[in-house]
Design goal:
The chain has 13 helices and 13 strands. The strands form two sheets. A seven-stranded parallel sheet has the order 3-2-1-4-5-6-7, sandwiched between helices. Strands 10-9-8-11-12-13 form a six-stranded parallel sheet, sandwiched between helices. Helix 3 runs parallel beside helix 5. The relative contact order is 0.13. It is of the alpha/beta class.
């Protein structure tokens, strides 16, 4: 490499999705000779070092009295608020979305001084953050920084697009206005308070309806162009769509011999947070136990709380990007990571959305014909098994998905993202 190595700092949200996105890009940059450092929430300490990266740890809330598992705060938060997931998205605004934003904002305030200190010590050429609220310390540091938006791109607002978190269809605007009114009512006071904090700590005013600033340097998002939304106002020159960011760092995974066979292979994952709803996981296992297919199940952090059926194998965590190429169908909560990774490998999806942008991803996949959207709490066993059968037997869809996956993989979003970050760190 002819250019001097840069110090590039990744600062992802304390959850596996954003962290894994950053790991893939960080791995490419590391192999190109750059110094790559991760700033991670304290409960993640050691997880990035185990993958060969430098770490700096910080806290978003006061230390607990007992040792935490990675992302434990969010696992507990999801478990306690799971009853809200059974409600319509408009009701989730005040009962789940707003409390989640408040928790994230509290974290941004709590860590501000420590983050400023860490950035001062590292003196990075570029900071790459993947969060859903702003951290004024990024502005105050005086260092260039880039933003990765690893959620559904409805978070990047446009008047011709459905409201974020709504799961409303793109072609029917009849309920958009009511949802936007409820969104603003749920967040107005919190937005004003955080806007004041951002200004006091050296950041510009917050954009309307947003808790996060765009970077003046570089902004990246992840949504293959085949499913991306048409906008009235095109995004500016600092914005780039990577399509997908699929890391090459996951270990190999082979199907255990006890599940060898010729039947179609289905992957079931509600993500590390969604699978914390043990009652739902037990229900899905029971509903799929009689299906004439084989299932790989990502059991999540409550793995010991439920058993799998004889037609299933699974563990607490699986190397998802190694599993996906081997399966025929994905049953997912619709998290942005799993959605874009399934598209990257050309797999149709059954989406069972629970919270946040999962409803938007589920709706988009359904309305474009790449899968189906079902209510995880109201779907019956015949409906779920019927959807699995329909998608597995649809040869035209599977051929279409395979061709789509080839196009997405050819674009190589991870390396493109690394190149854009490398240039911004120049």
């Amino acid at each position: 490499m002819s250019e001097p190595a840069a110090t590039i700092v990744f600062f992802p949200e304390g959850a596996f999705g954003p962290t894994n996105n950053c790991v893939g890009i960080g791995d490419v940059l590391r192999r190109r000779g750059h110094r790559v450092v991760f700033i991670v929430e304290e409960s993640f300490a050691g997880t990035l070092e185990a993958q060969g990266f430098e770490e700096r740890t910080m806290r978003l809330d006061p230390p607990p009295e007992t040792e935490e598992a990675p992302g434990q705060f969010w696992k507990d938060f999801i478990r306690e608020t799971a009853p809200v997931f059974r409600k319509p998205t408009i009701d989730q605004l005040a009962e789940f979305i707003a409390p989640t934003f408040q928790a994230l904002i509290d974290g941004s305030k709590y860590v501000d001084a420590q983050l400023t200190e860490i950035l001062g010590e590292l003196e990075p050429d570029l900071v790459v953050e993947d969060n859903v609220v702003s951290f004024p310390a990024l502005f105050a540091s005086g260092r260039p920084w880039a933003r990765i938006d690893s959620c559904n791109p409805l978070e990047i607002k446009d008047p011709d697009l459905p409201p974020v978190f709504s799961g409303l269809p793109s072609e029917d605007r009849s309920d958009w206005g009511e949802f936007w009114d409820a969104y603003r009512a749920a967040h107005a006071e919190m937005h004003a308070d955080f806007d004041q904090f951002c200004r006091e700590r050296g950041a510009p005013p917050l954009p309307a309806d947003d808790f996060i600033h765009a970077s003046p340097t570089l902004n990246l998002y992840l949504y293959p162009q085949e499913v991306d939304y048409p906008r009235r106002a095109p995004l500016g020159p600092t914005w780039h769509n990577l399509g997908a960011s699929v890391r090459a760092t996951a270990p190999d995974w082979r199907l255990p011999e006890e599940l060898a066979g010729e039947e179609p292979l289905v992957y079931l994952s509600l993500g590390s947070l969604g699978s914390a709803d043990v009652a739902l996981m037990r229900t899905l296992v029971a509903e799929l136990a009689e299906a004439p297919y084989r299932f790989i199940v990502s059991k999540g952090p409550q793995a010991s709380e439920f058993d799998l059926a004889p037609n299933m194998v699974g563990t607490e965590f699986l190397p998802q990007t190694s599993v996906l190429p081997q399966v025929d169908l994905v049953i997912t909560h619709g998290g942005n990571n799993t959605t874009t990774e399934a598209l990257h490998f050309g797999k149709p999806m059954i989406c069972l959305p629970l919270f946040w942008d999962q409803y938007d991803n589920a709706q988009r996949i359904a309305e474009l014909g790449f899968g189906v959207r079902l209510d995880p709490y109201r779907v019956t066993a015949p409906q779920l098994r019927g959807a699995v059968e329909r998608l597995l037997s649809d040869a035209a869809l599977r051929a279409r998905m395979a061709e789509l996956g080839q196009r997405i993989r050819a674009r190589d979003g991870v390396r493109r993202g690394a190149g854009l970050i490398e240039k911004a760190a120049g």
